[in-house]
Amino acid sequence: MLASTTLVVKKVKVEGSGTRGQTKVSDYDSLTRTILEGSITYFPVDMVTRAPLLDHTMDHKAASNAWVKSCNDHKVRIEFDQEVEKVITSRTSQVRGQSKSYARPLVPLLYGFGFENSKRENRNKAKDLLDQNSFFYKDAKKRTGFLLHPIFQAILNKTWFKNKNDDGVTQPEFSQDGIPLVTIGLIATVIECCLDEWQSGKHVDVPFAAAQYHNKFNVHMKTLLSFKAKTQDADIIPRLCNHMLKKAR
After folding, report:
1. Is the distance from CB of 153 to CB of 248 less than 8 angstroms?
2. What distance lies between CA 242 and its chain's CA centroid?
């Protein structure tokens, strides 16, 4: 049953101004535009803390969650349909690409790649870091310091904690139990994509596409969850997630 303070309204599509028949925010009435704008703000947060590189089913769920949150903010209930979903999820690749764009300059800086190095040096460095996902470690050769390499904190800070108005600061999903493990899995997958760009010995652009990195994201999540289970008694992963949050603020 709906709360007595919740108003049920029907959205009104004013016109179709999008190219190739694509629906845009501006096509709707004022109230629906407001709800859509709020949903578009919530959607990236839900994606990167719950399902950044999964399937379209999860994109649908993230969009639906964002819509409900925005409706609740304004104490209204408006139908969520495919057209609304398309408007919200049209930002999907942009959301995923944002973390890649911030990570790209950090990877050569913090792992020591560069045009001043020989191709062989860059190629061997990329190979060593990608071998058994050694880039997860502060010391990749000794494989010690899991998740303590500064690249993880640097990407986190740059992508979601740039200032007091950024998503990491304002949205509770980032701080309920420390940085979400899914977000760390996304960071790991972004790092792998950036390392892939150096495998030839020189920098070559590699798109951060869900189709290519979906399985790699799943592998990284299994690694994180396995490490969490193995170190459960020491509470290492929860403490690391809280430590990352503390350093990000």
Report:
1. yes
2. 18
Determine the Cα–Cα distance for residues 95 and 58; give it in Å rounded to an integer. 14
129 token code pair? 């870091």
Residue 222 token pair: 């299994």
Reading the block at residue 13, the tokens are 């599509």
Tell me the per-residue pLDDT of 189-204, one tens digit each, with 9 for 90 and over.
Answer: 999 999 999 999 999 9
Band the pLDDT of 247: cuts 50, 70, 90: very high
Plot region of 23 (φ>0 → left; ψ -120 to 50 → alpha; else → beta):
beta
